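Please decode residue identities from the backbone states below.
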């Protein structure tokens, strides 16, 4: 059994039954992605459009692709034909562009709103109020080719477990409170939180999707 297969097995053991593992493959060569694929990983996360598109073209077509990095509006068109879930929607403008490109491809693209939860770090993301505003907006109800299916967040990059836990808990609370607005274009189904260093805490706090890179493929 390869080291990658062992890592995947080990991580899966620590997840709850319905928590999905997204293997974060950024910067790794396609040979290693294939190794993970052969070990059973079928959901891959990338943070750069060009890299994701190249890997999509090179690899088996039953792989499910997740965009997890900051996405520029002018690049949405390259991933719209095949991306399965965009975790990093951080503006109404981006959502509008995704809707436009999804329509051109005759698809509905599932999206998560990225929430800024790490208080002391400059990371992309929406405030709680901005997320609620998008979900309640008239504009969203007119977008027929996107669906908001949950939230994503990244905790502070630190060793303070209680702080990380509090950040995840905050995101879970927001997720639960936004459920009351569930409807046609927005439904709180997926909570994407947890990376190599903190997925254990994230799972305890209610994550449905963990995004794990270095714990599978080694450090970048
Ligand atoms: C790189 C990245 C990950 C994975 O990070 P690891 O610490 O290697 O597990 C998860 N989420 C996002 C948004 C990332 O950019």
């Amino acid at each position: 059994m390869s080291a990658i297969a062992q890592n995947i097995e080990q991580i899966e053991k620590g997840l709850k039954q319905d928590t999905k593992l997204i293997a974060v493959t950024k910067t790794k060569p396609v040979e290693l992605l294939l190794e993970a694929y052969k070990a059973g990983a079928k959901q891959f996360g990338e943070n750069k459009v060009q890299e994701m598109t190249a890997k999509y073209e090179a690899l088996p077509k039953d792989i499910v692709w997740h965009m997890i990095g900051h996405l520029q509006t002018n690049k949405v068109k390259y991933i719209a034909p095949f991306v399965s879930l965009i975790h990093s929607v951080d503006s109404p403008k981006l959502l509008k562009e995704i809707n436009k490109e999804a329509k051109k491809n005759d698809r509905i693209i599932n999206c998560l709103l990225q929430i800024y939860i790490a208080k002391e770090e400059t990371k992309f993301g929406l405030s709680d109020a901005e997320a609620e505003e998008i979900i309640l907006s008239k504009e969203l109800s007119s977008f027929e080719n996107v669906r908001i299916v949950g939230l994503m967040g990244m905790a502070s990059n630190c060793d303070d477990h209680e702080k990380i836990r509090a950040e995840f808990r905050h995101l879970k609370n927001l997720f639960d409170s936004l459920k009351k607005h569930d409807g046609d274009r927005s439904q709180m189904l997926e909570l994407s939180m947890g990376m190599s260093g903190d997925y254990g805490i994230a799972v305890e706090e209610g994550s449905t999707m963990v995004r794990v890179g270095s714990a599978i493929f080694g450090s970048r």
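Observation: The beta strands are 20-24, 43-46, 64-67, 85-89, 109-115, 146-153, 186-192, 209-212.
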